[in-house]
Amino acid sequence: MSEIERPPLPNGIVAFVKRDCPTCEVVAPVLRDLAKRVALTVYTQDDVAFPEGLEPVDDRALEMSWHWGIDAVPTLIRVEAGEERERALGWNREEWQQLTGVEALGDGLPDWRPGCGSLSLAPDRVDELRARFGGGVLRSRRIELADLEDEYEAMFERGWSDGLPLVPPTEQRVLAMLGGTKRAPDEIVAIVPPDLVPCTVEKVAVNAVMAGCKPEYLPVVLAAVTAVCTDEFNMHGLLATTMPTGPVLVVNGPIRRAIGMNSGMNVMGQGNRANSSIGRALQLVVRNVGGGRPGEVDRATHGNPGKLGFCFAEDEEGSPWQPLSVDLGAEPGRSTVTLFPGEGPRNIMDQISRDPESLARSFAACLRTLHHPKLLIAFDCLLAVGPEHARVFEQAGWSKAQLIGRLHELLQVPGSEFVRGAGGIAEGMPEQLKDVALPKFKPGGLLVVHCGSGAGLFSMMIGGWVAGDLGSKPVIQEIES
Prior knowledge:
Blueprint: E1 12-17, H1 22-37, E2 40-44, E3 57-58, H2 63-67, E4 72-73, E5 75-80, E6 83-89, E7 91-92, H3 93-100, E8 112-113, E9 116-117, H4 126-133, H5 151-157, H6 171-178, E10 188-192, E11 197-200, H7 201-211, H8 218-228, H9 235-240, E12 246-252, H10 255-258, H11 273-288, E13 310-313, H12 324-327, E14 336-342, E15 346-349, H13 356-368, E16 379-385, H14 387-395, H15 400-410, E17 412-414, H16 415-418, E18 437-439, E19 446-450, E20 458-466, E21 475-478
Parallel strand pairs: 1-2, 2-3, 12-13, 16-19
Antiparallel strand pairs: 1-5, 4-9, 5-6, 7-8, 10-11, 12-14, 14-21, 15-20, 16-20, 17-18
Helix pairs in contact: 4-6, 6-7, 7-8, 7-11, 8-11, 13-15
């Protein structure tokens, strides 16, 4: 606020009041008495006729109250040479007498009464006032719409939308969104591909507003933008591939519960605002800041609905294993987001297996088909184990590492089955590999996360894009406030 030029207060004693305040009503006679003995200026927040007989200055727009940081009314300020020297909140006879230099104020009144909240701090006015009077905070270009333009249609026509309606990013809404982080609005978060455009916290906030985020979601979106723009994640390549893949966000740590994310029933579906809007905000940043639009750099043959936004939380509390974030090197208890380059989720159904070996074999049989049963090593996978399946392994004492190890053993495929032409299928690996066995996934290429409803013997698998240096690697990013 100190960087914003604020209108001056007149020298003398200045009072801020509102009629809708019992204490202001009580001290109105005191103010009339003061006006006879000192230079007094009264600003009124709600009624230009109050207090009667004092010719109050109209501050119903709350400009003076906002600029001078009025927290409560009545507030009394002593001003000398245009500078505030002292202020008193509410009614306190001793403080008012000391501030004004006038004795015997308010005879017959109680010695002290608390004031009321200033209208400039009313929840329904704070963002509006900050937008009106906090000039210079936002740097984004303002878009003026014609009187007959529909704001929702205008955003479609300007190419900002992912195909669904957007929330108009008004200055008031963007400022409210920025309240979700301590980071400066002009701080560069990342260089966003494919156009390699510098992206500020403010630009992320604009897209988070359009996506329907709440301010408390912004730190997750900022972390996701940082992760997606790394060389390791290779967002440009993920856009340019013709495969149906995009960023998949997995959130771990305390922030999941703090912002109300879903890690249980319908975890990868609709219905949870945080899950839906965080993933969407990331995709809008890539689209609107980085230029990653379908039909241009985004060359997906089919795509998948998850490219609107694919974000969910891990069920850490119900899991028999340590969370995905710890597997990837994060400290336990830290809030993180993991970016996985993935396709849409595919169901793994086994309603009968009650021993870990049988269930592991079911998993392996399904995992073998990922992308194509004859294509090996090239793709990673995120395996989302449901609670009922997880209990089968927990009751048998299987650790996550033990499960992954057994799956790798079961997914060793002989060359006679995967080379080109085998099984009458032209697709496959080169002929010279026919005498060797290869794993479906390279070491570290199978990640396991725990989520989903407690009812239903299901798990999910999310296939990756090209793995490793030629494609994308999963990236984990700690979430900052």
